[in-house]
Model the fold of this input.
Amino acid sequence: MITPYLYVPIIAWLLAQIIKTTIEVIKGDADVKYLYASGGMPSAHSAVVVSLAGYTFYHQGANSPLFGVTAIIAGIVMYDSFGVRRSSGEQAKTLNKLIGEMARNGNLRKPDDFEKLREVLGHQPLEVIVGAMLGALVATLFSLDELSPIINWLTSLPSRNEIYGLFIIAAFIGIGTIAYFILARKKLKKNKKVYELFKYILLVNIIIGLGLVFSSVVALESIAPYGQRWLSVFILTAWLIFMLIAIWRWVSLQRVENFEDVIIEERKKNWLKKAGKKK
Done:
């Protein structure tokens, strides 16, 4: 009999590829390659590793060494999806564009020797998150009989130490973000897009902080159902997803700014060279 630790990730992969193909067909790009190719929405890699880690968590528990291994592997794979592999895809896109321009301008002696590089290699953070959510859903569907302890934990009131911990996290998220905004305001204003993004982050973090304070207060008062663990878990999960996307966007904007600075500097040098020749 095939172990579920094998067929659950395979099912997650199949679902991800089918969804990906369906999305591309709707966009008007009907191609069989999407049934097996990497890249695109959602991330099949994320779906596979998260489904495996999730299934292991449900059946082995958080204290299991196997869960630790699968969770670390899942983290590495997902980071690689929107990190290294995505960067490789961006580089391939740039090289294809460069080679195409050189071929059109006649600056390439043997353009046929250069095959077009595959551009869709990695993923956007949203694609990784959706893939992870799909993997978690598949793992959950195959572990419904194991959910009772988790549901009981989520629907129970947190301990005093947990509540105090939530207060500390809320203060860190809310007050910490405000303090950073005040201290780094001048620096942030140098890049208008980064500044606007951080204002949005500030607003969301304040709301998240207030939400955690609310969940902590109702937990202290033992008010069900809002005092139960599920509310704080939901708020923290939403915050983590938001921050992952926001950090990725922030880094992207910084890269664009640095790239634009390089272009401007190169243009200045070229202009100075031309001006020197004219003299």
In short: The two ends are 83 Å apart (CA to CA).
